[in-house]
């Protein structure tokens, strides 16, 4: 394991697109591996959509009320299942936002993106959570508790200084949150080592504490739903996507009931179900005299249809036919099925009672004939929550681009000149920007003629991600002037350096102002642990 924060290590060395920052970065090279503790780099963001099923943020943007500038500018480029969160914000319904920070070094301008995302969601009405991943820092990074305490305070001060409201929201550290640890223990019962091996590459040498920090992160992600299920977004870098996927799986596995659609007493795989659904429609069940379309009828119709006209392979067809023939004269009737996954007897009985209309009860499922799928999902959750379950909704995520290092390449805490810490002396911040690599041409003449390469310029990124703030016109002006050849790098950097200096001075002043707020906040600033 390296000693760096993955968020920095994964920073892209490839050019990122500028204004608008929309599609992926460079084409071609694509060594995509999403590793939360490794040094994966993202060379092609588009690959994340194709290979990992991350969705493009642009597609939900319209549904987001007052989108943050990081959303508008494509810095937040991807998401998983963000729609329910956007909808809840839109309708003033309960929603939550949570992210965590490993206190391994100073908070820097890359972390500011995540702070801003939490704060924005809080301001839109979501319950907001900021956590210190001290167990992870200790187990995966070998940080001492004294170091952890020092860095934790710095992260928290910056989060508050940027506008997090600790009275409305919740701050905690993993190690002292008892409810969190209880949840982690429960979730651990639904995950096993082979799975960790497949997802994270753990092996026989991996510390057990490191594995525990994973279930702790799973608990972090579901923690906002302990009181009641609600859409929850986890803003992180794409390196954390494996964690998000696992948390979504675990949320599902914790559910008491699984709702699906069925046509007869037996179970169908999804592609089998689609086939039966299609033939059910095609056979026009109303037309059957005695009102009874039976399994054998569907089987016959299937057998008369050439395989080439069906959208399934021979194995699937054979499997459906076997099921239909075995059921024989059983009527085919669409129904909503509640499958008992981990329900208590009490919960199962409560579900049976709660189902209105015609129903049929089996050993480990109930079929309902008068409830549609959506209503069934809602009912299953309601019964689960009423009978002591969590009823988790799968957590959502949003992913932001990694900032390019000021010296080109990755932004890394081990290369001080590559990043700007939120604690940097404002003069040092000024100097670092002045010394940054740019997307400028060899000579001023060439630049006037061809324009600068804003898309490949870390200084332009500073404007887009931070310095232009909410002012889109300003960001666009910088971009247009740069690529139009009107803006030269010397002046451009001078302006950016000045803005950076002002930002740091102001931020640090605010950090001092919120020191009391932090003292009063409900979070232990000193770990009781010392080794
Ligand atoms: N693993 C995250 C990191 O490396 C920190 C973290 C812990 C976290 N728990 C979390 C992030 C929950 C988001 C949600 O930075
Ligand atoms: Fe970058 Fe500014 Fe130079 Fe354009 S003019 S390349 S944005 S430093």
TrEMBL record:
Membrane-spanning intervals of the chain: none
Which reaction(s) does its UniProt entry say it catalyses? tRNA(Trp) + L-tryptophan + ATP = L-tryptophyl-tRNA(Trp) + AMP + diphosphate + H(+)
Q: Supply one GO BP term.
A: tryptophanyl-tRNA aminoacylation
Renumbered to this chain, the Basic and acidic residues biased-composition regions fall at 1-10
Q: What is its EC number?
A: 6.1.1.2
Location of motif 'KMSKS' region in this chain is 410-414
Q: What class of enzyme is it?
A: ligase
The Gene Ontology terms for molecular function here are:
ATP binding; tryptophan-tRNA ligase activity
Q: Where in the cell is it found?
A: Cytoplasm
Motif extent ('HIGH' region)? 103-111
What are the boundaries of the region Disordered?
A: 1-34
Q: Which residues form a coiled coil?
A: 493-524
What does the entry list under GO cellular component? cytoplasm
Write out the function statement from the record: Catalyzes the attachment of tryptophan to tRNA(Trp).
Its family remark reads:
Belongs to the class-I aminoacyl-tRNA synthetase family.
* Name assigned to this protein: Tryptophan--tRNA ligase
Designated gene of the protein: trpS
